[in-house]
Specification:
heterodimer; A: 156 residues; alpha+beta; Ubiquitin-like (UB roll); DNA polymerase, domain 1; 2 domains; five-stranded mixed β-sheet; 5 helices; 5 strands; B: 293 residues; Uridine Diphospho-n-acetylenolpyruvylglucosamine Reductase, domain 2; Uridine Diphospho-n-acetylenolpyruvylglucosamine Reductase, domain 3; Enolase-like, domain 1; 3 domains; three-stranded parallel β-sheet; 12 helices; 13 strands; 26% strand
Chain lengths: 156, 293
């Protein structure tokens, strides 16, 4: 089936099998390997991308379901050559160790900060509660998101 | 690597179109809403539908409307919509409480209310919540629309009264003053099914319980409900003592089974304890609302 999906602002048309998962479309068809393929059971959140306005677990969405929609991946977070404050926060606060969970964490963090620009640490933890960092680096992930919250007011 | 088996795909343009596709393809077709139960089952090859009928574009099933008399929830409303809707929390705190502990924030963005109900998992929180508040399920087929009480909706584990040519389109709840409700769940971690969970809604006239609904998930409650405990409470004052007795009655009427989430006696304990606690929460909220109004 022919699908047209706008990924990070660029339209992509491809022929896909209906059973193709969105995560594999992004990684294998488009070569966007920033989104990670983790548990395959919608538990770990390594595959989180935005579908239109909200983050979803792309291992549990078919590519055909994204036809005509917009997808945002970690490759699309930076704007005009400048890293998103969330990305800067992860750099500043050592928010990643192995980095496998990082793209999904960042996309959820961006969604949280768009809805709630000044979250508490508890609200950050709740927002990422469906995502797993197997390095168990949650402390620094929370710090990174709070850093972004403190440093993003001059943006936009 | 988990990949679904080969499947055909159709995108419904309207509810009528979805119904005609269901009719054309027969019982091996499946409605695809959020897909957060169906797609994992397809990946495990537990489910192998021949055709998926994608209803995600049907915006007329995405609504949550509140009037003076009724709360109307479209079956395609996402869990996050129900959680974020202020009017839902105001009239039926039980739904807000339940949504807060269903899956995780990301899954809630795409998983749907109707999908959860039709999946009919015996541990489904929303099934217990709607059983407690006695929701009315609106089911459409090519021959028209019929309504079924939430307590008649599930016919067994993973089974509902929705026929192969039908779609759950809406859930209706009456808006009634003088009530309060809540939901309590014990789970091992975020995103997991409950070990046990109980929701309750009650309506008071002064201190006396005029009506009450109790819904239980994951503890083997028939139709997710505890009618014997409700009968006991109706007409009695809203006291801790009565709530405790209602918890005992609810626990006795459950048939929990041991699994990796816990032994049967612990689940029965949860049914008893959570029933008593959530009734107290519901009563407090009913009082608060009464004094505010």
């Amino acid at each position: 089936m022919r699908v047209t999906i706008t990924v990070n602002g660029t339209e992509h048309s491809r022929d896909v099998e209906p059973r193709l998962l969105l995560i594999h479309f992004l990684r294998d068809d488009l070569g966007l390997t920033g989104s990670h393929w983790g548990c395959d059971t919608s538990n770990c959140g390594a595959c989180v991308v935005w579908l239109d306005e909200t983050p979803v677990k792309s291992c549990t969405v078919l590519a055909v379901m994204a036809d005509g929609r917009r997808v945002l991946t970690v490759e699309g977070l930076a704007r005009n050559g400048e890293l998103d404050p969330v990305q800067q926060g992860f750099a500043a606060c050592h928010g990643l160790q192995c980095g496998f969970c990082t793209p999904g964490m960042m996309l959820t963090a961006r969604w949280l900060l768009d809805r709630n620009p000044h979250p508490t640490a508890g609200e950050v933890r709740a927002a990422i509660s469906g995502q797993i960092c197997r390095c168990t680096g949650y402390e620094n992930i929370v710090r990174s998101v709070l850093w972004a919250s403190d440093h993003q007011d001059s943006r936009s | 690597m988990q990949v679904p088996a080969h499947v055909e795909y159709e995108r419904a343009r309207s509810v009528e179109h979805a119904l005609s596709l269901l009719s054309r393809y027969g019982p091996e077709a499946r409605i695809l809403a959020g897909g957060h139960s169906l797609i994992p089952m397809m990946k495990l090859r537990i489910a192998q539908p021949e055709v998926l009928i994608d209803i995600n574009g049907l915006t007329d099933l995405c609504h949550i409307n509140v009037s003076d008399q009724e709360l109307l929830i479209g079956s395609l409303a996402r869990h996050s919509q129900l959680l974020d809707c202020e009017a839902v929390g105001e009239h039926y705190a039980i739904l807000r409480d339940a949504e807060n502990v269903i899956a995780d924030p990301i899954v809630r963005n795409w998983g749907t209310v109707g999908g959860s109900l039709c999946q009919a998992d015996p541990s489904e929180d929303l099934s217990a919540a709607f059983a407690a508040v006695k929701g009315i399920m609106v089911i459409r087929g090519q021959d028209g629309t019929r309504t079924v009480s939430a307590r008649e909706f599930h016919t067994g584990p993973y089974e509902t009264v929705v026929g192969p040519g039908e779609i759950l389109v809406e859930i209706r709840l009456p808006v009634r003053p003088g009530g309060g409700s809540g939901y309590l769940k014990v789970a091992r971690r975020v995103g997991d099914w409950p070990v046990g969970a109980v929701g309750a809604a009650l309506w008071l006239d002064g201190d006396v319980i005029t009506d009450v609904g109790i819904g239980l998930a994951a503890v083997g409650a028939r139709h997710f409900a505890a009618p014997e405990a409700e009968d006991y409470l109706r007409g009695r004052p809203a006291t801790q003592e009565h709530f405790a007795r209602a918890g005992e009655i609810a626990a006795e009427s459950c048939q929990p089974i041991a699994d990796q989430r816990g032994p049967a006696d612990y689940k029965r304990h949860l049914a008893r304890e959570l029933t008593a606690r959530v009734l107290a929460i519901a009563a407090r909220r009913a009082y608060d609302q009464g004094s505010a109004g």
